[in-house]
Amino acid sequence: MKSSLDCLPCFMKLAIRSVRQACPEDENLQLAVVSAWCAKMAELDLTLSPPAIVRELSGLVCEMTGCGDLYAEDKDMTNQQILSMLPDLQALVEKSRSPMLTALELAIIGNFIDRGVEVAHDWREELQTMAETLDPVTVQSFLDAAVPGADVLILGDNAGEIVLDTLLVRELQSRDCNVTYVVRGTPVLNDATLEDAEKVGMTELCTVIDSGVDTPGTVLDRCRPGFLERMEQADVILSKGQGNFEALYEQWDGPVYFAFKVKCPKIAGHTGLDVGQSMFGTAPKL
What is the per-residue pLDDT across 150-208, written as a single tens digit (0 to 9) for each? Predict the structure, then answer.
């Protein structure tokens, strides 16, 4: 998906949030970084997807401030918050009349935990008051594809969200699916990496690999060698998060089930959903 003029205000807000996170006490450096980003924005290639452009922004912030994993503490805190809730959520799935539907709903709510955009919705409240919002016909088509022995590839997204994804992995494994979970190759925003997967127990639950990307989305030309073949070999691809949708929509020819929270008017226009609603479906239906 290409970026657009509508993306520019979000890029600027992200630049300000990121630099305040990186050097909260140094206003002069904050101004210098934001000024450098303003100059760079004038030359942005809007044919690139938003995750590809955010990579440029994240690189600039890290280069000028010397920060490393900018959201390391934030990721740890969020992972621990949801790990503390996991037993109750697991019980909710187990007693559901449709465990897979419930696991999907919960995993998509976790996509609100996104430091790349300003989100007004409270993911904690929505987890407590979860309602069934997904199209049962689409869910059934996913179940029809996730047959015993199917090779299911889950493209993960954020920290915190990855904890909720363990519920989904367990449900797929209960159907005798072979599940592989994919994380980012390097830290970017609050996206999950192999370190997060290890801390929340995902590596003990299923095979975990990294795509190699340094972008908040599976940007195909940033993937490590051989990963695209791995995607092609999968029987089912479940793409979590708006960043993965932005990176893959109109770029990946194979079938993909997208699962995320709609977080901006542009994506709302592409999906036909309102901001804040849960998206679950395949690209041809969008």
Answer: 999 999 999 999 999 999 999 999 999 999 999 999 999 999 999 999 999 999 999 99
**162 near 202, Cβ under 8 Å?**
yes
Pick the closest to residue 252 from 278, 225, 234 (CA basis).
Answer: 234
Cβ distance 109 to 127 under 8 Å?
yes
Distance of CA 126 to the CA centre of its chain: 18
Element of type H or E holding 106: helix 99-109
DSSP 189: T
198-207 tens-digit pLDDT: 999 999 999 9
With beta carbons less than 8 A apart as the criterion, state whether 90 and 239 touch.
Answer: no
Residue with tokens 């989904």: 168
CA dist 200 and 169 (Å) reads 13
Asked whether 151 and 233 are in contact (CB, 8 A), the reply is yes
Structure tokens at 94: 């187990």
User: What is the model's pTM?
Assistant: 0.94
Per the CB < 8 A criterion, the answer to whether 19 and 267 are in contact is no
